[in-house]
Design a protein that fits this description.
Two copies of one chain form a homodimer. By secondary structure, chain A is mainly alpha-helical. Chain A folds into two domains: about 15-140, Winged helix-like DNA-binding domain superfamily/Winged helix DNA-binding domain (Arc Repressor Mutant, subunit A, Orthogonal Bundle); about 140-170. Chain A has eight helices and two strands, in the order H-H-H-H-E-E-H-H-H-H. In chain A, strands 1-2 form a two-stranded antiparallel sheet. In chain A, a hairpin with a 7-residue loop joins strand 1 and strand 2 (about 110-115). In chain A, helix 1 (about 15-50) packs antiparallel against helix 5, helix 2 packs across helix 4 (about 80-95) and helix 2 (about 55-65) crosses helix 5. The longest helix of chain A has about 35 residues, at about 15-50. The radius of gyration of chain A is 20 Å and the shape is globular. Chains A and B meet through helix 1, helix 5 and helix 6 of A and helix 1, helix 5, helix 6 and helix 8 of B. The structure holds a DNA duplex.
Amino acid sequence: MDGPLSDLPTTHDTPKPIALDSAALEAIELMFFAYRDFTDVADRILEDHDLGRAHHRALYFIGTNGGITVGHLLEILNITKQSLARVLRRLIDGGLVQQKVGNNDRRQRLLLVSPQGQALLDELISAQRALLVRAFNSADPASLPGFRQVMLSIMTEEDRQRFEPLVSDASADRAA
Amino acid sequence: MDGPLSDLPTTHDTPKPIALDSAALEAIELMFFAYRDFTDVADRILEDHDLGRAHHRALYFIGTNGGITVGHLLEILNITKQSLARVLRRLIDGGLVQQKVGNNDRRQRLLLVSPQGQALLDELISAQRALLVRAFNSADPASLPGFRQVMLSIMTEEDRQRFEPLVSDASADRAA
DNA sequence: GAAGATATGTCAGGACTGTTGACATAAATC
DNA sequence: GATTTATGTCAACAGTCCTGACATATCTTC
């Protein structure tokens, strides 16, 4: 109906289930519109380079995981190697990504972004980061941890673990 | 270059811009993984009915806006009428959606979900709602308003307005 | 060292979803 | 009556994902 902590129209108990349920219904639409507008700022940049979202995703994870293997990238993206191959081909042929034979395992093709690839990636990240910083600034600063916690909770356990190093950082930090 | 109130990484102040900036970088990935896993639960159901995400979106907004016009649906989805036509054709031919001539304007084709369409939509909504309720339960209850506020702030002003009736409810409520 | 497993690449074909451009019809509006 | 609006449709193209099959090079194991 309305806000996440609203209602309590009845007597006294089971206040949470009802509130969570209506909050979840609204959240379905929050996810749709927020994600669409979030990806939109990158899509506009990608258009200028005749690239799609799939190229963006590959470029992003190669850029933030320099030297990543094809297999690991496939695990992150959760697509087939044939799908990735097409995308990777464009990125490599376009000079945005380079390959390097693995050091220990010569079957591996380690992926690296070229300077041009990094330039494009910087542009994409800046645009999305700017959108998010504006959003964070216009929201109550106290909203941030809540946003983060809910987003993490929505993910599968497997995906959530990708963020855990950052989480445990805080607790394991002072051990140094 | 970046955030509206950002940088100046020099002497002593501006602690927030830096924090917001790194939070925004992490949020790029939060958006990617959370949205993917969120859509995944619906995708699995859609597979059983040989429908795609586009059908889900159309069915959803028809179901939650009974009697919506084609034009209004196009505005919400932000796609071309040719794209929608293909999707709508499947939904109508499959008996999930029905059309009705407009009352005031007989050019309009008002869209309505059939009982079967509602059954599928219920299934889809239940699955996503269950995922979100689980997420909300595993997160701190105080996280919810923050999540909502940030998601709203990420959207364009136009999309945010779709939620405003709900927002202003709280402030205009006591007027009754 | 031969056999099997692994990492990667590629060809072929199909499905879904989005786009542009062009045209058609019916009904509202001026 | 002329124009605009709401909707539908045909055609073609692009991007992204999938399945299935096969090929090559390089580990790993017995």
